[in-house]
Amino acid sequence: MNEYEETDMKQCVKILMVAAVILLLAGAGCAKKVKETEDSQLGLSKTSVFDNPDPVLASTTAGEPGENQTVDAYFNEAPPMIPHLIEDFIPIRIGENMCMECHDLPDAIGQEPAEGDPTPIPASHYTDLRNDPGTVTDHVVGARFTCTQCHATQLDAEPLVANTYAR
Ligand code: HEC
Ligand code: HEC
After folding, report:
1. Alpha-carbon distance 68 to 129, whole Å?
2. Among the atoms of ligand 1, which is closest to the Cα of residue 117?
């Protein structure tokens, strides 16, 4: 190693040491910036995770089928909300679909139901949209069998997260 190479080495070591110190300081700075999340901000219930809060009970004004007004659609093509109670009709099972007992009215499709009568299940539900979209069959297709997968009931509950969606 000649004299020049030796000074180069020393320079290099110096630079590396300075770089290491800068990195250490930067690291310490970063560590300080991490903000801790408060217990109370972890879930939708804004209290400590050690609390056992009593949520406000939600209620419904829905009555038995036949006693209710239908709910306006929130957007075009939205599955209409179920305006009546459904406790007695769920769960939907392969051999027992109470929703169909009242709503499976293929002969009445396209007719306005009389006050208090069920809305007929529409033609789209009798059509296999994936394999044979042009054909209206004589039965509700499997993809539409579990009505509650798409149709939901109403509840008068304070939303846990605010929503600004407008029709
Ligand atoms: C005993 C008969 C009956 C049963 C069982 C029943 N419904 Fe209904 N449904 C009605 C009637 C009647 C209406 C009209 C609104 C009203 O008066 O409650 C209706 C309205 C609806 C509507 C609103 C349609 C629109 O035009 O906006 C939907 C959706 C619906 N029902 C879905 C269901 C689902 C899903 C089930 C099963 C979990 C079900 N219904 C079980 C009788 C019934
Ligand atoms: C995959 C989602 C889905 C499933 C499952 C489903 N629906 Fe629907 N339903 C919709 C959508 C979307 C609409 C509105 C567009 C349309 O008419 O196809 C609708 C419309 C309706 C309507 C209103 C018809 C009208 O003329 O206004 C009734 C009644 C209904 N469905 C009943 C049922 C019943 C009963 C079941 C179970 C046997 C069921 N649906 C299963 C998505 C679904």
Report:
1. 31
2. 12
Q: Ligand 1 centroid to 118 CA: how many Å?
A: 5
Select from 50, 44, 57, 81 the least CA-distant residue to 160.
44
Contact 102, 112 (CB under 8 A): no
Mean pLDDT by 10 residues, the chain (167 residues): 70 80 69 80 85 88 95 91 97 96 96 95 97 96 97 90 81
The size of the chain, in residues, is: 167
**What's residue 45's pLDDT?**
82
Ligand that comes closest to the CA of residue 89:
1
Q: Which ligand is nearest to the CA of 62?
A: 1
